[in-house]
Amino acid sequence: MGLMDSLEGTTRKLSWRPSGTEWGDYYIASASHYTPSAFEHKKQVVIQFLEQIQPAITWDLGANTGEFSQLAADRGSLTIAFDIDPAAVEQNYLQGNAKNETRILPLVMDFTNPSPSLGWHNRERHSLLERTPADALLALAIVHHLAISNNVPLPLLAEYFQSLGRWLVIEWVPKEDSQVQKLLASREDIFSGYHQEGFEAAFEVYFKIHARVSVQDSPRILYLMEKI
After folding, report:
1. Per-residue pLDDT tens digits of the chain, which is 228 residues long
2. Is the pTM value of this prediction over 0.85?
3. Reading across the β-sheet that carries 207-214, which strands appear in turn?
């Protein structure tokens, strides 16, 4: 207990105001690839999907600073907001702490290298997959990063997501989108299967598509899917 008290006392003295990282400043930079009306429409569609499925537990995969995590939490869902960027996660935590938000847990997580089982006989602390399933997953503006930046084929992404939860709210970001063009500017385009038809074919192996909505003033599409 003395060690825990000492650790708590030390951490309480720490202060970090993160800024200047890609994901920590994502929603500031989003003006470059979302018009205000497009971003608002995206939020309204996500709200519509959440109110339709009413998840008790939501995992927001690539949550940035938690803008969409908050939409789930506001509707009573206990929400885990994962992001690879510690600065984005810290901003999410600070925002929640300032308003006494108890339904969002921001965590640092790399989904290409998720937390394994740890401890004696690998049984003291469970791996990420052993902590599933969530009722719903938010996978917004993340598919292109996993598929192109990390070279994960769409069928493997679909298989991975179906292992994490029942409902999936996912955003398709096509090659003509400015953010995908940025990713492809510094690498050879070897992603011949990265198109909407290939995306739907890969995910329909594991999910039923209940809805697809084009985001206004944007080439992006939001999907509501349910695991088969």
Report:
1. 778 888 888 877 777 777 665 545 555 555 557 899 999 999 999 999 999 999 999 999 999 999 999 999 999 999 999 999 999 999 999 999 999 999 999 999 999 999 999 999 999 999 999 999 999 999 999 999 999 999 999 999 999 999 999 999 999 999 999 999 999 999 999 999 999 999 999 999 999 999 999 999 999 999 999 999
2. yes
3. 104-108, 78-83, 57-61, 134-139, 165-172, 221-227, 207-214
The domain locations on the chain are 37-227
Q: List the Cα angle 132/76/210 in 5-degree steps.
A: 65
> Which of the following CATH numbers is that of domain 37-227: 3.40.50.150, 3.40.50.360, 1.20.120.530, 3.40.640.10?
3.40.50.150
Six token digits for residue 172: 């398709």
Q: Is 111 helix (H, G, I), strand (E, B) or coil?
A: coil
